[in-house]
């Protein structure tokens, strides 16, 4: 009986460790109003699992900007000093903008997204071929279906990250999209 109890505690401890490492409030992600101070470097963690880097990518521009890395599905909010103040994962839609430098063209406090979901904090930065590309947060917390047939350009964030983007990205703020 003691062996089973010890094994069960070990499993619960391991699952708790995994949950803490992937939780939205993990200390590697800055909170609103704080400075981005820690990052995971590419490599392996203590448990030996592969990690994505949260360090600001080289060659992502200069000055104040939003950096969107398509491959990493990650966004950085970068201040005028060139330092990331916040980074977070995003959920892209089936369509992606080409890598390049854009600017925020419009903002909308809320509405219905191109995928039919109620969204808030919409920050649009590019339109191409009838597809509008922008950052938004679904009110219900859902992410877009990357395999959907309809080509939409929504880049979904959590509601907290959407609020931070809304405060940061004003009309004409630079948006750098990298592969």
From TrEMBL:
Sequence segments annotated as region (Disordered): 24-60
Residues spanning the signal sequence: 1-19
Keywords of this entry: Signal
Bias-annotated ranges (Basic and acidic residues): 38-48
Protein name: L,D-transpeptidase
